[in-house]
Design goal:
Rossmann fold, four-stranded parallel sheet, Ubiquitin-like (UB roll), 13 strands, alpha/beta, 17 helices, de novo design (two linked rop proteins), five-stranded mixed sheet, 3 domains, globular
Length: 447
Amino acid sequence: MAISEQRVILKHVDEPGYDPGIECYVRHGGYETLRKAVGMQPEEICRGVEVSEVRGRGGAGFPAGMKWKFLDRKSGKPIYLICNADESEPGTFKDRQIMHKDPHQLIEGMMVSAFAIQAALAFIYIREEMPQAARILEAAIDEARARGFVGEDILGSGYSCEIVVHRGAAAYICGEETGLIESLEGKRAYPRIKPPYFPAALGLYQCPTIVNNVETLCHVKHVVAIGGEAFARTGSPGNTGTRIWCVSGHVQRPGYYEFECGALTLGEMIHDVCGGVHPGRSLKAVIPGGSSAKILRADERFTGKLKDGTEFDWGLNDIPLDFDSLMACGSMSGSGGIIVMDDRVDMVEALANINAFYSHESCGQCTPCREGSLWMKKITKRMAEGGARTEDTDLLLSIGDQIAGRTICAFGEACAWPTQSFVSKFRDEFLAKASEDSGKRKGLRLV
């Protein structure tokens, strides 16, 4: 069955003859939404974003309009807007496509958002591992400033706002908004305790701050273009608009695809859009939202109730691709990174690889995360290399359970969830490692 994409954010990306320059963008109707926005009242735009029910595309899926509503507008302090372009979740590569191929869409989305919240200054926090994207964005901002879309007196509205591109040092923890803010202030990226440090009240320089993802800010442009109520009718209830999904792993056509939320199932994405696994192989498991999302087995059933009370009984292939359905099945849509694994994958080795990443990326502020992520890395590495012990399976679960929910930021969950789900759902493979290596265990230490 052929399933067509509904490209909105990616409408011109990969289109023949389309380039990242401002002339091309303006020819395709670029900055007309900004022109419309500066003729509106900022409060009207904020209400439209709230009505649209557009949710953040960076990982948590928190409603953007609600986040804006929390802004402390009475403090008398300047308000800041930060674009989180620190795309660091393994399996995710959507935001860089926007920045590389349609940077003015992001800039327009940012300026519409900045005007809506009356930001004094806007930042794009981009990881150092994307130097070309940073250069493209800086050139695009210069082009936009020369046309009056950025900077002083934007389009004669009397509103002024600059955009500054700030390159981070490529740390995963900077994807967490308060860690990002600390880094932007020139400090070690230690996430802040919430409360009291909710960015909408105490953010950058202790001023009210909104932090939104690249894809989210692009959606704001389209919300304003068609109106919040019209946007809310796209996608599915509570999961409005389109979503960009990044599919990698053992599929025949990996890549990035855009569909309305809930318009297709996980099975349709894998088998129809991406051509399924390679001939002679079978589907074993899927991580649906980047490497920190809990893994789903290909052969399990998922039952329960959705938020609206609807009961479901789904196989893996039946799960609708939206925020709420994946959460109801015990995982999450996260950053939209779908990682497909076929029957060749050794789950112990796969988890060892993931644990090595999260151990390296822990900022070290919280003891459970700093120590626990390292222990999980060492244990799974030893298991994968032939030194598994009978007690390792339960030990891994115990460590994961003692990290999740016990740290300042969500990195504790990000590093614990893979271990909790891999070991729980593929327990037989972990126990088998211990059985295979029983003759080799003598004298082996944790390290």
